[in-house]
Design brief:
By secondary structure, this protein is α/β, with parallel strands linked by helices. The protein is built from 13 helices and 14 strands. The strands form 2 sheets. The chain has an 8-stranded mixed beta sheet, with helices on both faces. Strands 11-10-9-12-13-14 form a 6-stranded parallel beta sheet, with helices on both faces. It is globular and about 65 Å long. The two termini are 23 Å apart.
């Protein structure tokens, strides 16, 4: 089967920088069975093509990206026909995917992978803030033969808006993240916490840092490895200084996966503070290597709680600090949650994701809607 995948980016030539790991893991697996062409709207500013993980990457470049992506898909289709077009994110990539598919008379699929259904006007985030964006999301989901999303909370939001999505998480590559069972914490040393996310308003690291200040005030010893690209011009580092917790935190900035994994493996708890998540992948990666998550009630955190994660209210530093402290003081509970999370992440790994998408592809290509 010849597949067209349309993505915003995340498929850099390097395979390490400016990539979306879950996308690469899926592409690599799909390419084992299919001829895969990936159309990236703006990976690089200029058009270009390259090979990556067994797929052919077509970078459209800046300027009228949606229209040019549609033309690029149609041009490749004329060389030999695509069976379907799959858009990742129900925004610009999704719109290009469903329009190209409609013009070619072939089916399309959409994976809702970010904030398309969210609306957080105070930080300018979400695909429901403007009428134009809402119309794009509506068009993508309504036009697709099947629409999917990573977690049940995301599906619940979609249902409230009148959309039907199928749950299909983007799992972890167990070769890139070799599984490790949960390990008891060494209570003689400060607790090791880890946070993996770009520094931005939706990830809400200000709530995280305020929670850690409360934890410090409660005489809980800890060290946090904070991993992610800084898009906030150093404001979180300044806040850490103001809260007098700078000595407890290492701001690593962006790291490639091979550098992230040892820091996650050495942690006792993954801590997340997001205001919205479809996933997040960081929770799944931590679970694979035996590390439980305490976080805000979004995405997989909410979905897995209370058996396999601990969820607390969004933007509530006191609640986040309380749940972190409680778990650090209750090692049997921490281990129970870690084991439950570990088993869930192993069941729904990257191989599971690819197999589920393959089932959908076969059904959609045969003219049947996938199971919802």
């Amino acid at each position: 089967m010849k597949l067209a995948l349309v993505v915003p980016g995340g498929v850099d030539r390097s395979g390490e920088h400016r990539v979306i790991p879950a996308l690469l893991w899926l592409i690599e697996r799909l390419a084992l069975q299919h001829e895969v062409h990936v159309f990236a709207l703006a990976q690089e500013s200029r058009p270009g093509t390259w090979e990556l993980r067994g797929a052919r990457i077509h970078n459209v470049g800046h300027g009228f990206a949606i229209v040019r992506t549609i033309h690029a898909v149609m041009r490749e289709h004329r060389r030999s026909g695509f069976a379907l077009v799959h858009g990742f994110w129900a925004g610009a990539p999704g719109l290009a995917a469903v329009v190209a598919a409609r013009l070619l008379g072939i089916p399309s699929l959409i994976h809702v992978a970010g904030g398309e259904l969210s609306c957080l006007p105070d930080i300018g985030y979400g695909g429901r803030q403007r009428m134009r964006d809402r119309a794009i999301v509506w068009t993508c989901i309504r036009a697709a033969a099947v629409a999917t999303g990573a977690s049940m909370p995301l599906l619940a939001i979609a249902g409230e808006l009148g959309y039907r999505l199928r749950r299909l998480p983007l799992g972890v590559d167990l070769r890139a993240w070799p599984p490790r069972p949960p390990r008891p914490r060494d209570v003689r040393r400060p607790a090791r916490l880890v946070h993996v996310a770009s520094l931005n308003r939706v990830k809400d690291q200000s709530t995280l840092l305020r929670a850690l200040a409360a934890l410090s005030a409660d005489n809980v010893a800890f060290h946090l490895d904070l991993i992610g690209e800084d898009t906030l011009a150093g404001s979180m580092q300044s806040l850490a200084r103001q809260l007098d917790i700078e000595s407890h935190i290492c701001f690593h900035g962006f790291l490639i996966q091979d550098s992230v994994r040892p820091l996650v493996e050495s942690a006792d708890i993954m801590v997340m503070s997001s205001r919205h998540e479809a996933g997040p992948l960081a929770l799944l990666e931590a679970a694979v290597v035996g590390v439980p998550t305490v976080g805000t009630s979004v995405g997989h955190v909410s979905e897995w709680a209370p058996e396999a994660a601990i969820a607390c209210p969004i933007a509530d530093p006191a609640a986040l600090a309380r749940e972190l402290g409680n778990l650090l003081r209750d090692e049997p509970r921490r281990m129970r949650i870690a084991h439950a999370a570990h088993m869930r992440a192993l069941r729904e790994d990257a191989d599971f994701t690819a197999a589920q998408f393959n089932v959908l592809y076969e059904e959609v290509a045969a003219g049947r809607d996938g199971p919802m």
